[in-house]
């Protein structure tokens, strides 16, 4: 498997696992964002470094602007931009986290759902 295929598998695994955890265990994400909410400005740094790292890895190995691969490149680019914005314009990152903190967890027929 070459490096391009490897990064595609890396992205697929990460998006699948994180997406599945959002669906199956949304409470852990609520707990995570409540933890971030309690950390003042440090929450912005934590919330920026995660997508910055993911996006940087993707762009380093999958900088392709044709075919299906462009979707992975665009995803990586969006993550780098998100990290850049959150680290350089603190108010944007803090407002975004505040909106997430306002969401509530609702238990409905055995499913935990995030709700406003």
UniProtKB/TrEMBL annotation:
The chain crosses the membrane at residues 6-24, 45-65, 71-94. Keywords: Membrane, Transmembrane, Transmembrane helix. It comes from the Bacteria. This is Uncharacterized protein. It comes from Wocania arenilitoris. The lineage of its organism: Bacteria, Pseudomonadati, Bacteroidota, Flavobacteriia, Flavobacteriales.
């Amino acid at each position: 498997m070459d490096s391009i295929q490897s990064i595609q598998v890396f992205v697929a695994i990460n998006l699948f696992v994180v997406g599945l955890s959002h669906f199956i265990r949304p409470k852990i994400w609520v707990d995570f964002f409540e933890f971030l909410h309690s950390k003042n400005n440090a929450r912005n740094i934590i919330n920026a470094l995660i997508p910055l790292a993911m996006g940087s890895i993707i762009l380093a190995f999958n900088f392709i602007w044709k075919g299906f691969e462009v979707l992975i490149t665009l995803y990586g680019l969006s993550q780098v931009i998100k990290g850049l914005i959150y680290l350089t314009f603190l108010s944007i990152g803090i407002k975004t986290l505040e909106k997430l903190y306002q969401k509530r967890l609702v238990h409905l027929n055995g499913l935990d759902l995030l709700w406003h």
